[in-house]
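About this split. The held-out portion is used to measure sequence recovery: a designer receives only the structure tokens and must propose an amino acid at every position. Recovery is the fraction of positions where the proposal matches the reference. Here is one held-out target exactly as it appears in the evaluation file.
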């Protein structure tokens, strides 16, 4: 896979700049785009420059990567007049939409980020270049993004959806990179709804959790999928919550051996010699006292807290950096009711949800229709039956085949056409089904084969 990133800054149109400046003059107070503090506009520009140059985390980096001083793309005056309806809207979903829309509007005149992916290259090469793309410094991630797939004729919004779907899928299930003598490199590990960042020092030293934060923020800005299934305790601390108030569960510890050792401290049963040795060894390795009858409960909580959160403080700081680079952080800190990291149950696609978003093929007076109303009714009936009986995985694969990511779009249409196999027009969210099927089984077999190819490109059966 080849990726080309072109980030250039162009001067704002003089007429738009004058219009924005006139608007700002009418406001006595303005809002800093980084720290979100209100202050007189006449000192905002100086403050924003210093704020943009200050460290995001003092012990992580000595420089920030917001590029606020570059007035060619990020005019400070534009940020000061940012629509703040997202702060007050009662519906958190609409608030997130308004914030995303406004951030993209402020950067719509910037030079787009151009991603060129060769899907004929090896998975390892694709993932390596994908990570390199998000390792770029001083990038305005809110600028328009344009994606192209080499080795595939597909163009348009469907390609962009494929790109963001791939990004989040790699974060959740791992990259095809051999780091640390593993076939797959996972940035997050653990059980569903208990995922936490890997404790691998190699990943931390490589700043791969900064990459993860940028990927998540970038996908969010463009309406893409979120990373579902993170530990609630980890999310609580990541979003500025106190480690002491995090509600930890034993399942949040991804290391099974450590989890079993910590679990020995639950209850009141006396520890035998072997159990005591295991607990003591773990305590000493983390600079904690050995177990006694008096400190047993306290020690259990301390060990679990360190296993889940304490070993991941640097990962938390890096993910924050990545989210701040994509301008998502103000939303997460101001609107704590916005669900940025959903649970697995909140990210499901059910048959009822999918059926409610579909615009079904209907009878038409158009003489050029390829099939009769009866044929359309039979084929769409097969599709409805398939959706009602499909597994959660098959439903998500169908969505990816249909629109190129597993998030439902508003107007998902179905057409019955003359074709050998099911196809889709992902930019327009149209699923095109052949009208030659006369039984549900043959329809299901072909559709299952087609949707199973979605991660390899567009209809490569």
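Reference sequence for scoring:
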């Amino acid at each position: 896979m080849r990726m080309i990133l072109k980030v250039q800054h162009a001067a704002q149109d003089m007429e738009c700049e004058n219009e924005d400046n006139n608007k700002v003059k009418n406001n006595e107070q303005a809002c800093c785009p980084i720290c979100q503090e209100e202050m007189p506009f006449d000192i905002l520009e100086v403050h924003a420059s210093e704020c943009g140059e200050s460290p995001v985390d003092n012990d992580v980096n000595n420089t920030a990567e917001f590029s606020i001083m570059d007035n060619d793309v990020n005019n400070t005056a534009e940020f000061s007049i940012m629509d703040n309806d997202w702060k007050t809207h009662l519906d958190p979903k609409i608030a997130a939409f308004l914030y995303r829309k406004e951030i993209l509007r402020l950067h719509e005149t910037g030079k787009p980020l151009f991603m060129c992916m060769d899907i004929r290259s090896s998975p390892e090469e694709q993932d390596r270049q994908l990570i390199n793309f998000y390792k770029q410094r001083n990038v305005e991630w809110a600028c328009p993004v344009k994606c192209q797939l080499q080795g595939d004729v597909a163009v348009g919004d469907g390609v962009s959806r494929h790109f963001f779907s791939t990004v989040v899928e790699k974060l959740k299930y791992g990259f095809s990179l051999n780091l640390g003598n593993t076939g797959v490199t996972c940035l997050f590990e653990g059980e569903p709804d208990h995922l936490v960042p890997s404790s691998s020092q190699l990943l931390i030293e490589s700043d791969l959790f900064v990459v993860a934060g940028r990927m998540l923020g970038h996908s969010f800005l463009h309406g893409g999928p979120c990373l579902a299934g993170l530990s609630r305790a980890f999310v609580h601390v990541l979003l500025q919550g106190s480690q002491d108030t995090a509600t930890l569960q034993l399942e949040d510890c991804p290391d099974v051996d450590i989890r079993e050792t910590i679990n020995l401290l639950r209850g009141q049963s006396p520890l035998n010699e072997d159990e005591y040795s295991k607990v003591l060894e773990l305590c000493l390795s983390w600079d904690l006292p050995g177990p006694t009858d008096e400190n047993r409960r306290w020690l259990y909580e301390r060990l679990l807290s360190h296993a889940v959160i304490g070993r991941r403080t640097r990962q938390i700081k890096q993910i924050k950096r990545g989210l701040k680079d994509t301008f998502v952080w103000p939303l997460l800190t101001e609107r704590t009711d916005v669900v940025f990291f959903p649970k697995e149950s909140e990210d499901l696609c059910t048959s009822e949800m999918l059926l409610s978003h579909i615009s079904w093929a209907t009878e038409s007076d158009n003489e050029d229709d390829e099939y009769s109303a009866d044929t359309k009714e039979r084929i769409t009936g097969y599709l409805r039956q398939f959706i009602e009986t499909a597994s959660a995985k098959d439903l998500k694969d169908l969505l990816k085949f249909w629109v190129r990511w597993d998030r439902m779009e508003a107007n998902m249409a179905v057409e019955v056409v003359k074709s050998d196999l099911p196809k889709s027009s992902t930019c327009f969210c149209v699923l095109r089904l052949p009208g030659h099927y006369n039984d549900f089984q043959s329809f299901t077999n072909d559709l299952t084969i087609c949707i199973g190819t979605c991660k390899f490109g567009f209809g490569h059966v």
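Annotator remark: The first strand starts at residue 29 and ends at 31.
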